[in-house]
Amino acid sequence: MNGSHLPSWCLSCRLLCSASDQTASVSSQSSLRLSPVLSLHSLSDMGFTESQAGQLFDSVSRLKGASAAKHVLSTLTVLFVLGLNPTSVQKLIDKCPELCMVKETQLQQRIQHLRKLGLVEGSLQRTVVHYPKILTVPVKSVKNVVQFLREKCQFTTQQVTEILRDSPAVVLEDLDQLEYKFQYVYFRMGIKQAEMVKCRLFRFTMEDVRCRHVFLERRGLYQTPDKKGQTTIINPKLDSILNVDQHTFIVDVAQASAEEYDVFQKLLAREWKEEELEHGSIEADSDEEEDDEGEEPDGKSGYKKKKKR
Amino acid sequence: MALFLETSTVLLRRIKDIRPLTAKRHRVKGKWATTLPKHPPTRLALQHFDATYSAQLGDLWPSVRVALLSERKYGALLNNFCHSPDLEELQAQGSAPLRLHQAGLWPLAAVNKAPQGETIWSEFWSIMPDKFGLLSYYLMDAASVLPSLALDVQANHTVLDLCAAPGGKALALLQTQSARFLCLNDSSVSRTSRLKRVLHSYAPKELLTDDKLRITSVDGTMWGEIERNSFDRVLVDVPCTTDRHSLMEDDNNMFSRSRVGERRSLPRLQAELLLAGIIAACPGGEVLYSTCTLCPSQNLGVVERAVQLAEENHGIRLQVVSLRPLVRMFQNTFHFAPDLHLGEMVVPHLAANFGPIYMCKIRRLA
Ligand SMILES: C[S@@+](CC[C@H](N)C(=O)[O-])C[C@H]1O[C@@H](n2cnc3c(N)ncnc32)[C@H](O)[C@@H]1O
């Protein structure tokens, strides 16, 4: 143990030491949370370097609650069994320490379930490393999302697997939101499932998708296909709308200026906030007169309207 | 309802508001789901504009299009006659409204320049009247004051506003108090009474007396039979396709199927109104023609035709007056169309979402 001076390391080191009874002066409160069997020794036995072990302790100690990290050892074991190396495991726990709170049997069930959904060896590991949170989601919730994608959106089994692999965060998305996003792209943009999967649609937020699409649409560069799937202009591909950085999108795809898009984003956000407020509320007609120039409401009528309420 | 036949039997379109560009009217009331017509007038208007304006404006059209289809910006025409703390409040809230200078010198050029999206005008709609019952500002497209400014009314002028209702431009004219006599006309009786209401809400009674103001409701094309060669200034702000309205509201829309005839005859009506305005002006007097459309056949086309008719049928010679000085004054506030061979035009742009306004000024020589 030569002097690595990283403070985190020092702290963890001391915690470890106290667990193995050397320096009694150190408060042992934190160390109590850790599993008694978890020691520097056991971690290095597992193949972690000293600094990795220190970082692991750091991550785990971020968890709140007395028995938070109860399952840390079994979790590490499961991840090793999955075939991950110590470096990946350490990073993964750092990203998602909550995994240490999950029971071993549950973890195994969840991994098994992902395999059943078609994530083959290799993909499975990559997905877990990239988005460890997926293992905190109950099998039942994942099933719901999968069923939803299959039945409501008509993705094929193969496509669902690809979605899980490329955009695993869908498992935590609200189903209504997900449905909205799908239907928006399907009906408004006229895009089929295969293309959605290819472009990794579910990686993008609804706001991004909508903002870019509506901007193009209002500029006259995107049309909703008619019943026969036809448009009078050639729509840009979904891929070239989504999978490019903002500058490229503005300049090459929308042929606009950054200033315009900047203003547009703000305007659209406001439009939608307003619509959400109005959503579903059917208001009675106000006694408006015909109005050529649209300069209503002038101060007067606005005042009257307010007073009436 | 689903778009794609092959899957339509199973894919249920559940989320209702995934609609294409829909008129505001429909969106607000939520009745589009059942009654949205197949070809709503707003849609027809868009198709029409796409065909004509893309040819006319070229590369500029996409920018104008997205601006027209997005939330417009308003300007607040501050009421010089109102004594109300609202005004200071309005300025404190970060908008720099347009105030017309009392002395008839033109504006303290200050239209709202704050970045789009920061000021929510609807919050201001509940303005309170001052102790005399006058309202503190009039909300309008800021570019709509340009025709009133361009008219350049001088002290002791007599002014005719041939199509005056609901009164935004007349109000702007009134603000400067320079005209000796103001004659406001609009053929629509209901709109004329609205004009009267507006005036009484914004101007003190002393300015609305019979010796200073006359309000009529006659067909403007017949004005020549009433009064010829008499006004120093004539504003001819004609009915037109009102591009913004046509794109956003299905109600009272010029592009509805039932109004095809009316729409097609607009240029003729506009030319007749302008001609009547020309005849009503005195020799040496000036006429300002304005619309809120980008359509060339309602703009320069009309001016050319009216000028020709005036010369051929009435022996009136006219001269175009340049509006360049005005354009230069406001070029940081509005987007003006480049290279118009006759008149000037404010084109909407997201960063300055005002207009469209077309203006052309002509002087009567004899
Ligand atoms: C663009 S609006 C005028 C807006 C007004 N100048 C303002 O700033 O508030 C056109 C007006 O022309 C009126 N109008 C239509 N045909 C007319 C005619 N033949 N003679 C006079 N006015 C007419 C309409 O009633 C409408 O109020």
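qc> Chain B touches chain A through 67 residues (CB under 8 Å).
qc> done
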